[in-house]
Amino acid sequence: MTTTLRRTATTLAAAVLVTGTVTAGGAAAASGSSGESQPNANPPQVHLKLTPSSAKLAGCMPHARVSVDVSLTTDRVGFDSFHVDASGLPRNTAFTVFLLQKAGAPFGAAEYIGDVTSNRQGRAANTFHLIVQEAFSSTLVNGNRVRVDLNQVGMWFADPKADDFCLGPNSPVTPFDGDNEAGVQAFNSAHTTPLPPP
After folding, report:
1. Mapping DSSP to helix (H, G, I), strand (E, B) and coil, where does residue 121 land?
2. Measured between alpha carbons, how far is residue 61 from residues 49, 56, 65, 96, 143 in Å?
3. Which domain, by its residues, includes 161?
4. Domain assignment present for 40
5. Is the separation of the CB atoms in 48 and 193 below 8 Å?
6. Domain for residue 119, yes or no?
7. Judgement on whether residues 107 and 178 belong to the same structural domain of the protein
8. Residue-by-residue DSSP string for 70-82
9. Residues 28 and 100 in one domain
């Protein structure tokens, strides 16, 4: 008899938990109808076109096209989706991707968010999940907190030798990779509308 009562109590407790979850979901859906985004509604999108960072690189990669599409979903799922789609790149080449304070040099604050690597046809794609619209860098300067929004995007040749096809064997080595050695900036968002501020 005691075992039966315990099983019944466990079943009722599970039913209450399930009911509570459903009710909470219903409440969230109801509150969404008062102005918040619906779970099935399309999130706001931001579209950026990255262009070669110099005239010399543009001449060496005349067919390069780099698009960035950002789905602003942080309020819904805790992160945004940052999708890079590129073509016309040097083949079998890795690039590092950064959110930046300034699109071109000097870049100011920077956040390394991931890599894309082209295939033998020069195409590359990747999706990163991170905070994009509200991305910022924060530090202390003379005891005062300084916040810098990161509303620009840049891509670097991940290997210092990867830009030699265009700039020659003595091209600069930059720190824009996890091992602190990268090539020059290949593409940036200098000629497009920056990411919207939060």
Report:
1. coil
2. 15, 9, 9, 17, 45
3. 45-188
4. no
5. yes
6. yes
7. yes
8. EE--HHHHSSEEE
9. no
In the chain the beta strands, taken as DSSP E runs, fall at 45-52, 65-71, 80-87, 94-100, 110-117, 124-130, 136-141, 144-149, 152-157, 185-188
At position 110, the amino acid (one-letter code) is A
What are the distances in angstroms from CA 150 to CA 8, 61, 95, 136, 162? 56, 27, 19, 5, 26
Structure tokens at 166: 């265009």
Which has more pLDDT, 146 or 10?
A: 146
* Burial zone of 84 (CB within 10 Å; 0-12 exposed, 13-18 middle, 19+ buried): buried
Q: What is the pLDDT of residues 57-91, one digit of tens each?
A: 999 999 999 999 999 999 999 999 999 999 999 99
Q: Classify strands 94-100 and 110-117 as parallel, antiparallel or unpaired.
A: antiparallel
Residues 156 and 180 in one domain: yes
Same domain (yes/no): 28, 115: no
Torsion angle of the four alpha carbons 181, 186, 192, 196, in this order, in degrees rounded to the nearest 10: -20
| pTM tops 0.85 | no
CATH of the domain at 133: 2.60.40
Number of domains in the chain: 2
Distances (CA, A) of 94 to 8, 32, 105, 155: 59, 41, 21, 10
pLDDT tens readout for residues 95-128: 999 999 999 999 999 999 999 999 999 999 999 9
